[in-house]
Amino acid sequence: MITNTELEYKGDQFPSKIVSFEQDVDSIYFYTDNNVILKVTILRDSLIRFRYTTKGYFSNDFSYAIDKTQSHGYNQLEVTEEPTFYLIKTSKVFCRINKHDVRVFIYDIDGTPILEDEIGFHWEECYEHGGNIVKMSKISKDGESFYGLGDKATHLNLKGKRLENWATDQYAFHKDQEPLYKVVPFYIGLHHNKAYGIFFDNTFRTFFDFCHERRNVSSFWAEGGEMNYYFFYGPKMSDVVKTYTHLTGKPELPPMWTLGYHQCKWSYYPESKVKEITSKFRELRIPCDAIYLDIDYMEGFRCFTWSKEYFPEPKRMVAELAKDGFKTVVIIDPGIKIDKDYWVYQEALEKEYFCRRADGPYMKGKVWPGECNFPDYTNPEVREWWAGLFKELIAEIGVKGVWNDMNEPAVMDVPGKTFPNDVRHNYDGNNCSHRKAHNIYGTQMARATYEGVKRFAYPKRPFIITRSAYSGAQRYTSSWTGDNVASWEHLWIANIQMQRMSISGMGFTGSDIGGFAEQPSGELYARWIQLGVFHPFCRTHSSGDHGEQEPWSFGEEVIDITRKFVELRYQLLPYLYTMFWQYVNDGTPMLKPLVYFDQDDFHTHYRTDEFIFGNQILVCPILEPNAQGRRMYLPKGNWYNYWTHELIEGKKELWVNTKFDEIPVFVKEGAIIPKYPVQQYVGEIQFDELTLDVYFKLGKEKSLVYEDATDGYDYNKGRFSLRTFTLTGKDKELIIQQHKEGDFETQYSKFKINLNCLPFKIKRIELDKEKLTLDKVQIKGDNSLIIDKDFTELHIFGS
Ligand code: MIG
Q1: pTM of the predicted protein model
Q2: Where does the pLDDT of residue 202 fall: very low under 50, low under 70, confident under 90, or very high at 90 and above?
Q3: Closest-lying ligand 1 atom to the alpha carbon of residue 543
Q4: Which UniProt keywords are listed (predicted)?
Q5: CA 395 to centroid of ligand 1, rounded, Å
Q6: DSSP-derived pairing of the beta strands 629-634 and 217-222
Q7: Domains plus CATH for the chain?
Q8: pLDDT in tens, 438-458
Q9: Sheet holding 733-741, edge to edge
């Protein structure tokens, strides 16, 4: 018999009081008398995990996001019991846990409240009235700002927004549209000049509310799964971002060519069209390293096949393109055409690798090839099989990179544009429904692709690009921001998305330059290229049904602007490669929003347009038509205008004049910017000179240049070169010291040193403490020196 109380909707439930606690090395368990357990795990002094169950026991602890190869450790952990609370202390934070309601309060060592529970953990659990929702609410502090969350197409500062994480194929999305392709449930809070972070590692549909519903409350919740989050203490935003990136993992170094310029369109075919495009790049001398084949290269959109009509001899074509410096990248989608004569379909069917509906049949959905089945990439055996499928493409045909699309997963002509919720997934042995696996499906596909490409490209490095991704996907793949639009608003969105992705651990990202949907004007395309060359991933792509979108589609002026900026990117390759190496090494994001650069300056908290590219170059795109320049904010420090060399003091708003072939670019004083000669593709020419653009400063500044063989894995065996340049400027002196690590021999043996903005006349030069004889140095008219040895100290005296 059903009683009334059983049918009654209970609404929110709350933990009751703590009745006991127990410590097991780095974890402390708090037990309540209504089956809630809070498990607090100290991973580092500034990294604490909070995990709750409402069942009285914890299920298997499994996460795709956490990088298990990373180590953690703390200096201090003390747990004390007081009459009304417990206190957990590390060397960085105190964490108070109330006995009567399990609310959590975190303070830093100075006693400043950093993050405090409002209601804290609560949940709904009722089959008749809406299922299972786990919720968390925090008190938001005065003047608090919020950042992060991956690819959101909205203001960089998320204060006042409510956001949703459910990977979605969002064609021609617009500003503030939710949800989008990626799921990064990580945010940074900043108040009283102190930053902290939260990573809510829950793959169900999640929501974040930053003072949108209630002015003083930030909250997050999930439609299933556990309340399971990591807290990061800064106080610097850079510490939060680095620790988050360390926790969810960093990529390996990509081959240097992937940092070149890429050309794409839906679709270049047949072979003659592809060749026409690549030849035109060489003819116009616009550098380019990669050419993409979209879905039409396949036979009826069947993955791992080639259209015999359009591409009769792929191996020959790919080799010919490679001879001309072009790397071929091909698209691979998750949908496998239901076709009993198609070997990939046959194999997957035989081995039972396709996803099934709850009551048994295979998940069927329409995508480009027509009706398809979909591999369950959350099954390790399926990933292994999928990886093996790349043998022919990579090892035999010579394709250099793979592009994973439609992996939200996208399904046509159905409500919700994806799988139904009842679809089953293996989830690495933790069987579950699509409600839980949806958000990581794309990441697991990209991971399987990465494993395949890596295996067959060896000893070269793999390259993968994905559309959908969950936290941690950066370990396997780069990404792009999906189907944007050729509009000025989307140029603004692209700028923000790339900064946001960078501080969300997923730095190797770019937008479709020029816009995917609709046709850009020449002016918009030029402005987009001018920004795009400063994004980690730099590719023009378009849907192709609105006209041409190659650099030469918009007339001479745009060709020249494109060439100028793509050439600049190629000159800056050692700088770009070094910033990538820093990302790989310690999780430093490649692009830094101004708030990341100087969080103590309140003016930076709501800036969106300016960003720091690497460590020493500041970029501000032009985001409007007919601009003669723009207003912008220059953060702390002194900056040289890259084009005019004018020195400007920062921490102020200013107007900057620009011509059509310029955008505001500034170089931090004291910087030494390394440059290669312009090449049409990475490795095109042998060169014997590294250019160092030196920007004088009164005082000290460090600059780095990381190099290796540009591909392969020898750098892991010490075959890299890391140069540290220390610049010291005095009244009438400039000293540049160089320290070199690693045993990679760079191909060049000379340095061309451009002494920009020297405030004095050169009187005498000493190299490694010896007065220079002229065969070791040539002074050119424009304050540039050629030095033909690996110096350790260059000392310039002025008068
Ligand atoms: O339904 O492969 O975002 O980059 O060119 C469209 C064709 C499928 C969507 C991708 C886009 C790609 C296109 N794809």
Answers
A1: 0.97
A2: very high
A3: 5
A4: Glycosidase, Hydrolase
A5: 26
A6: unpaired
A7: 4-234 (2.60.40.1760), 291-315+326-475 (3.20.20.80), 686-798 (2.60.40.1180)
A8: 999 999 999 999 999 999 999
A9: 699-707, 721-730, 733-741, 793-798, 762-767, 770-771
